[in-house]
Design brief:
alpha/beta, 260 residues, seven-stranded mixed beta sheet, six-stranded mixed beta sheet
């Protein structure tokens, strides 16, 4: 592929987060900002909230006994804090920890309020510490309010896991969109919390500090596409999808394989 065309293709591939394959999906998502979507699985539930100006997905993963983890708290205002906290109280949930799949500003805006309210450990990969340190500069660049996030109290690596009652969420290292990006996989339920690695018919952007397009595609191919087709992907932006659907319909992944 000619160099100029390759640069153009990369520019088209990695635009800011894609929320779906058509405009109607994006409009529907925007209308649901702040309204929880509860997904009932066999013995584990997932509540999805869409917060902040980036329409970021925040997740509560909880079991029948009420043990829960907060994944990527993106609340950017006291009103958004209240939406998440009220849901936790109304469903008698007991937060066990907070997990950042990565530390881009839209995924950590609610770290401070969650740690302050629940006094639980904050989990991230060690390679995300520089990203976290850049958060104040990112808040100025994007002109969004930011309460300083606490430092992570547990730094994790691939091969570790998070216990949630009888469930085990395996930590998988999937760099590319961010240098220390992780995904959480619950194999028994067929669930993947992918952060900003893989979206429905799209992928995470790679034009931010620490991004790497080749690493991103390799993470998808070697860590996610090797999972069973029925596994459901809950991404950091937009609607859920499945591994099988993305293998068949995600042209972003296929197009990059030939020239990265």
């Amino acid at each position: 592929m000619p160099r100029a065309l390759k640069r153009r293709a990369l520019g088209l591939l990695f635009l800011p987060h894609s929320f779906g394959s058509n405009k109607s999906e994006s409009k529907a998502l925007i209308c649901l900002v702040g309204v929880p979507k509860v997904l009932l699985l066999c013995s584990m539930n997932i509540a999805q909230f869409t917060f902040n100006a980036f329409a970021e997905n925040t997740f509560l993963v909880y079991d029948a006994q009420g043990a829960c983890i907060i994944v990527d708290p993106g609340m950017s205002s006291p009103e958004e804090d209240a939406i998440l906290f009220d849901f936790i109280e109304e469903h008698h949930l007991k937060p066990q920890c907070i997990v950042n799949t990565h530390c881009h500003i839209d995924h950590i805006l609610g770290n401070a309020s969650c740690v302050e309210r629940y006094n639980v450990e904050l989990i991230a990969h060690r390679l995300e510490l520089p990203t976290l340190e850049r958060a104040p500069a990112a808040s100025l660049m994007w002109d969004i309010p930011y309460r300083m996030s606490p430092e992570p109290t547990r730094l994790v690596e691939e091969g570790e896991y998070i216990d949630l009652g009888s469930h085990r969420l395996d930590i998988v290292f999937v760099p590319g969109h961010a240098p220390g990006h992780i995904a959480l996989i619950e194999h028994a339920e067929g669930v993947i919390l992918s952060g900003d690695v893989l979206f429905r018919q799209s992928v995470g952007r790679v034009d931010l500090p620490g991004c790497n397009a080749k690493d991103l595609i390799q993470s998808i191919q070697k860590k996610l596409y090797t999972l069973p087709d029925h596994f459901v992907v809950y991404p950091g932006h937009g609607p859920e999808t499945t591994i099988g659907h993305e293998k068949e319909h995600n042209t972003f992944v296929r197009m990059t394989e030939s020239y990265l």
